[in-house]
Amino acid sequence: MCINPQKQPLHLVNAIFSSPSFVRRLLFIIARYTLFIRNITYSAIKQGLYLF
Predict the structure, then answer these.
(1) How confident is the model at residue 2 (pLDDT cuts 50, 70, 90)?
(2) Distance between CA 24 and CA 13 in Å, rounded?
(3) What are the backbone dihedrals phi and psi of residue 38, each rounded to the nearest 5 degrees, phi first?
(4) What pLDDT digit, counting tens, does each position of 12-45 carry?
(5) Which domain of life is it from (predicted)?
(6) Which residues contact 10 (CB under 8 A, 6 or more apart)?
């Protein structure tokens, strides 16, 4: 199995991006990190209000 190494990364990226499960996983990760950051920001604001 001989694959051109210069063509392989692009083909791999196309395969990854064309797969729906990857998109679902990416959206899930983005949503989870957004919630995570929002929770941290909320708790930081709450602690900041307690300090004042």
Answers:
(1) low
(2) 16
(3) -65, -40
(4) 777 767 778 888 888 899 999 999 999 999 999 8
(5) Bacteria
(6) none
